[in-house]
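Sanity check

After download, print the first record. It should look like this:
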Amino acid sequence: MDRLIEFVGNHYLLSSAFVVLAIALMLYESRRAGKSLSTRELTQLVNADQAVVLDIRSAKDFSTGHIVDAINIPRDKLASRVSELEKYKDKTLVVVCDSGITAGPACTQLQQAGFTTARLSGGITGWRNDNLPTVKAK
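Expected structure tokens:
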């Protein structure tokens, strides 16, 4: 840790440039991945029949509890199963993961396939933290 502090002190311009580029990359990726929705916004869209919840967690995680009527397509199988979502092209696909981090790349992939997407801010963890209901897979 001392060597890192010494490096930053000796190369403050390089270190500052790295921090600025890292922040710019994070902002770029978050914007490219689409809109981030709160749990309230998601509930409103689903209740208005304008959105479908796509849970990209593993089948095992999905079975422990998920948002009502969510469709489960694990992230690693999304490319091969995207055709299953064709009937929802007129709605917003709201992508849900564990914490809201891995939903971004899935949104980008779905946007490239012609879907309108958003991601749930905080993922299923945020949903549960807001004391909203989940159901277990049958």
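If your output differs, re-run the checksum step. Summary of this record's structure: The helical segments are 2-10, 12-32, 39-47, 59-63, 78-81, 103-112, 123-129.
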